[in-house]
Design brief:
Elements (H helix, E strand, L loop, with lengths): L1 H40 L2 H10 L5 H20 L3 H17 L10 H20 L22 H20 L2 H12 L4 H8 L3 H20 L20
Helix pairs in contact: 2-3, 3-4, 3-5, 4-5, 5-8, 6-9, 7-8, 7-9, 8-9
């Protein structure tokens, strides 16, 4: 009887070891698959930022090259002059450098960089106590008709762009940044909400109010249809 009991206990211990080994293998495979999935959604600049955070100094050039133009244009659209946008973009990269050790592995760098740039903009706006530049619209920000369009169409397009720019600068910063992040920067509602630090619902409401102001302003242009009249210019704020 004792021999049977000991034999049973040995078989039980062997089974537990086999089960534990199987669980470990399964967990390892699952983690590998998760890591592969994360790697698949990361862009080249994301991977460069990961290397930079890990101490590869040379990777900073790749991060800067990919993000600098986008951040400068983002700051311009928030209302900065060219010089201020350049200064704030450089400050953004400086802050990214100091905080690189806190950059989470597996995360995308763009929302993080935009959030830092936004904070730089807010700090500047509060400290300067002056109105932000209301310079004329940059050529980069004007959506002109395709080549071959008539001079009249180009004139209408430029007037529309100027109305949009004036309206954006006249609205509250909260509404302006919501519209800019969704419409110009192409961010998802979730990413834009993360950058601003509010809920997705609140971000949608801000963007909606910005859209309504822009629609009213454009509708005031003689012979210019209000955005959304045919659905082609409607701001997408779905998740």
């Amino acid at each position: 009887m004792l021999t049977l009991i000991l034999s049973f206990l040995r078989r039980g211990a062997s089974l537990e070891r086999a089960t534990a080994a199987s669980s470990t293998t399964t967990a390892s495979v699952t983690q590998e698959r998760a890591d592969t999935a994360v790697e698949a959604v990361l862009s080249a600049v994301d991977r460069a930022m990961h290397r930079y955070a890990d101490g590869e100094v040379a990777a900073f050039a790749e991060v800067h090259s990919a993000l600098a133009p986008r951040l400068r244009l983002f700051l311009r659209r928030l209302g900065c002059s060219l010089d201020i946008a350049e200064d704030l973009a450089q400050e953004t990269f400086l802050r990214m450098h100091h905080a690189r050790g806190s950059f989470a592995q597996g995360k995308q760098v763009a929302p993080w960089a935009y959030a830092i740039a936004r904070n730089c903009f807010i700090s500047h706006a509060r400290s300067s106590k002056t109105k932000l530049s209301r310079a004329s619209v940059d050529a980069e920000q004007v959506e002109l008709p395709v080549r071959g369009s008539s001079g009249e169409e180009e004139s209408i397009a430029r007037q529309s762009a100027e109305v949009v720019q004036r309206t954006l600068l006249a609205m509250t910063p909260a509404r302006r940044e919501a519209f800019v992040l969704l419409r110009y920067e192409g961010m998802s509602v979730a990413a834009a909400a993360q950058i601003v630090g509010i809920s997705e619902g609140a971000l949608k409401i801000r963007a909606f109010h910005a859209y309504e102001l822009l629609r009213a302003a454009l509708a005031g242009m003689e012979g210019h249809p209000a955005p959304g009249a045919d659905g082609s210019n409607r701001l997408a704020v779905e998740t």
